[in-house]
Amino acid sequence: MVVRMSLTVRRVEYTDQPEYTRLGGEAFGTPAGGRPAPTREEWDAAGFREWGTFDDGDLTARLRVYGFTSWFHGAQVPTAGVAGVAVAPERRGSGHLARLFGAALDEARDRGEVISTLFPTAPGIYRGLGYDVVGSFDDVDVPLQNLSRVAAPDGVVTRRASVADYDAVVAVHRAWAAAQNGPVSRAEKPFWTPPEKFFADYTGVTLAVDGSGDVVGFASWIRGEGYTPATAVMEVDDLIALTPGAARALWRTVGSFSSVVGTARVSTSGLDPAWLVLPDLTATVHAAHPYMLRILDVAGALGGVESPLEGAQVPFAVRGARDLAGAWTLTVSDGVTHLARDAVAIEDAHHVRPVLSPNGLALLYAGAQSAANLRTAGHLTGAPGHDAVLSALFAGRQLHVRDYF
Ligand SMILES: CC(C)(COP(=O)(O)OP(=O)(O)OC[C@H]1O[C@@H](n2cnc3c(N)ncnc32)[C@H](O)[C@@H]1OP(=O)(O)O)[C@@H](O)C(=O)NCCC(=O)NCCS
Questions:
Q1: Mean pLDDT of all residues belonging to the chain
Q2: Helices 387-394 and 358-365 sit at what angle, rounded to 10 degrees?
Q3: What CATH topology corresponds to 7-118?
Q4: Which of 137, 246, 281, 368 would bridge 216 by S-S if both were Cys, CB 3.0 to 4.6 A apart?
Q5: Which atom of ligand 1 lies nearest, measured to the CA of 1?
Q6: From atom 7 of ligand 1, which residue's Cα is the shortest distance away?
Q7: Distance (Å, rounded) from C-alpha 273 to C-alpha 249?
């Protein structure tokens, strides 16, 4: 099918909200009675950017972009998080998404956002746009029965947090997040929450406190209904521990509900260190939400990354997306990466330098795949001489994400 030239792609205005909300409700389902369009105040305050494709004034495709920072390679990286992507059922399969994303991502790049991320309903929708799966945000069911087997912590106790502990909770999240690739920093709306609202959202926030009185972990949890272990489920949004003692103390506190709650549904993302203290293999994934990433600005994302590989020099090229195509030389000096653009025809680059697809670039940057695996997947071709250094430059941090959008 062909995209009609009468289509207009533009920012969604407040006056478009009834149609925008209706199209979203149709795609994602709404509670009985429908979801009301936001009030002007709510929409103005939300701080996201909404884009739409219009055919003679009718909204036929939509998406929303959240501008926030996420942690990659020890820095808070400006990120365009895309959500709420929907095409009107009668227009699906017409190639609407490429133009809509093109406009929204051009704006993101102009605003200084160097990567874009999203949670897909199906990865195939976004692969052709240069996104690829770098991790997964999962709800994992942990049976509480065996948590008493977690070894008792040495010198770490738990206590209930109050609003006065908000800064300590934020500091624990930051210390953990800064050591990973992927976590939303929670420094910007809608992921930043005022302290009172943060505590109001949970039944309890439990702190792990070490012998010096320092907060070394926290768990935020919603108790849920009922006291029959076979059916009662409690939700744990964050269980973040900076020491093994904190992990043990928090798991044991959650486990202390085992006479009345059978399962803790814990939000996590792969092998977090806090899970390495668990004694059994009874946890099961209840729901998995893969996370995809695309690079928006090659030099902006891959430059300025801290690296111990002083003196390393890697020429590389990217082929396959108009905004990313080109050749660069990456060097490490003064402990960080620097990118210089090279005047090399991409067709000639193949013989002398590694050539990445947009997806390969995303997977490499996130540290999600090695150069060897990218070659296996067809996302890296060309000269292999720099593969080991290319892998080492961006590897070493695990991918975690704990905020859904
Ligand atoms: C998903 C949706 C937005 C795709 O719209 P569309 O008009 O079919 O998209 P396009 O024609 O522009 O196709 C874009 C790509 O998505 C792929 N695609 C579409 N539906 C897909 C699906 N269900 N599974 C995997 N890939 C899919 C197409 O094959 C195409 O791939 P290509 O670029 O490699 O050729 C639309 O079907 C929809 O609104 N679905 C319901 C809501 C939803 O799932 N939204 C996504 C939220 S993350």
A1: 95
A2: 60
A3: Aminopeptidase (3.40.630)
A4: 246
A5: 11
A6: 92
A7: 14
